[in-house]
């Protein structure tokens, strides 16, 4: 179903028609009736009559307005056959409300009714058409309503297309060609054309339509070839044993032609001249209806004389009506079909050949991009009878097959074209021509593929449905473009099927189209009929585009025409490249009134085009601005999204790194602190021990334990270094701090070792009380400094953690730098503490030196007979082996005082040694 919002197609108008049908009572969302009607107000019959009356004026004004007239869509309902009635096909599902409105009610077994029962579709549909023709409408009446006006337009130089659309077995072929005594639109149109051209035919065969809308002059040999071909074709139908009526049953139409021929003797004289040119070949056929009026034909026609549609009075009145003065007309016809997406010439192929064996025709574009069927047979006809014969030949070649719905179903789209060459008076070299065309297209019927059992029928049905679907898409796209002029136009998919490509010109301003929708009232095909009607509802909304014939090129060509050599306007395709721009002729030769008229038309055209371009420019500008804004906004959003993602990623990455760093640092510092605590505790314990043991016992004291090298710690720092080396500059700063800390630690270790050395020295005998007190003081000071150092290290750790937290919270380098500066300060303080410690140790060293000197002096004052002094670090038990004399010397006393047992208190030592 159509999705367009702006149009009234398929619009629910339940509110409007509620009075007619009643509502569901339960406030159901779905309407019971869907109104399917043109978006614009359709013309009333009165309006149509007025339009018909005004004739050319109406035509002119419509074109000047730029073509705002809507496409006409006629509906024809065929009667039910007896067999169908017996089958119960008549269920009242098709109801004509008035000349324009049709109401469809879903029969009980239809898909539509099932959908309606499920509440997903309405079961009543209302459609509006240009005019509805019921089952009782005769062929003549239908012709009057539809084709008659078109014939007049074509003879005035316009291009027209009439095509039938509908499901299979709905009466399309009947409408176009007719059966039996009921001639269809096409034979009637042919009769009408020749009736109007009575006495105005150009019988010479030297002008031929070529390409899309061009005319070509033939040379004598080409004329001869054309005559032979034409005679051969017409002879095919002149089988003496077979009358027209017997073959086709178009007796009524033949009778029309006969009547018209009998009343137009002048025309025969023209045709007779041409027959003479043909050297007598096929004279009996070429001389019009008289030529084929064999006894049997005439008899049949005379028998049917009661049902003649046109009487001679009306014909004589209408002959020559509305035709340009002095212009003569040459009528050419062609007939081809589109079968399984291949084009076949119906006038060229022997009927015995199957469609697939016939050579297909090519569809080409001329230099203006207009499609035309290459090598298509065009036959000049000089009477309705000849045209009718050509139609019969083509019909014999057409693809028909018996389907379950129609025993004689068209399996192809057949296209019959009548081209009228308007030959202006003058000698041949001065003659110029225009061309107009009436195309009648009998479309194959849409059908359900599943109903087709045979493979060939199935393939045909597929191709038929596809091409009809493409036609529907083209019409939808055209309507969309017309309804949304401010928006960029949709591409109309003309090229998606051969059918739409062939008909393209009639939808693109080269002419006008008119649609006949055929339906049958059978309940069994209700769903298909509904779809066909929905499709046609879209077509009713189409407006004819501005005719290309109002365009500047056309007007200029009109002005140029008399001055141009006719042959130059009918060049072959190959010669057309050369062009003829520089041969426009002398415009001073034109009639001033014609020039003024042309100027007015040109002015209006310029104004129209200017308005069109301005509107287009405005809409293009608006669209470009809108699209640019959209793009910019999209880019902005994209950038900010990317930025956010990047930021989140970087933050996450650095957070991870900082966490790792934090953990490593924490581990490292806690380990360091533990180690230091251990060392300090050890040192303190040792010092206490020394203090309690006294100076004499220092000899036996084991050296202080070495500060254990901490491989774990080093490894940790190495890991830390490796983890930090890849980080950014902030982490580099942290590394630097850590390196400094390592350095500090190394220095600390060194100092500690030095301190221990001095402690070892302190264990030398005979320290004086002052020296010991001083050393104790210094050591206490050193311990304090160590404690201070430890506190500093802890603070530094805290500071570093704070710095890390600062890094986590805010990636800004500034804050990190602050934190690192604070860490630097702490380090500086630590350095200072270390210097102080160093100074203290120096003092200790100096004291020790003094002490050593004192000891040396003491030794010097000792009597020479005295035994040598025992080593400073003699084992504790060795004191027992000394001599009694040695035991009484002051040095021995000092040594004794340092021995662990009995533990002497420092105060007696200080009392005995006096510095
Ligand atoms: N208006 C009418 N009056 C009387 N009989 C009709 C009318 N329209 C159609 N018929 C008959 O209905 C039958 C089917 O018509 P027709 O073959 O024209 O259908 P179709 O739409 O061309 O089918 P298909 O698409 O299969 O070719 C024919 O027997 C035809 O004579």
Automatic annotation (TrEMBL):
Coiled coil: 592-623, 651-686, 734-806
A GO MF term: ATP binding
Binding site for ATP: 166-173
Localization per record: Cytoplasm, Cytoskeleton, Spindle
All residue ranges annotated as the Kinesin motor domain in the record: 70-542
Lineage of source species: Eukaryota, Metazoa, Chordata, Craniata, Vertebrata
Keywords: ATP-binding, Coiled coil, Cytoplasm, Cytoskeleton, Microtubule, Motor protein, Nucleotide-binding, Phosphoprotein, Signal
GO cellular component, one term: mitotic spindle
Record-stated family: Belongs to the TRAFAC class myosin-kinesin ATPase superfamily. Kinesin family.
Biased composition (Pro residues): 864-873
Name of the protein in its database record: Kinesin-like protein
Region annotated Disordered, chain positions: 38-68, 691-727, 856-915
GO term, biological process aspect, one: microtubule-based movement
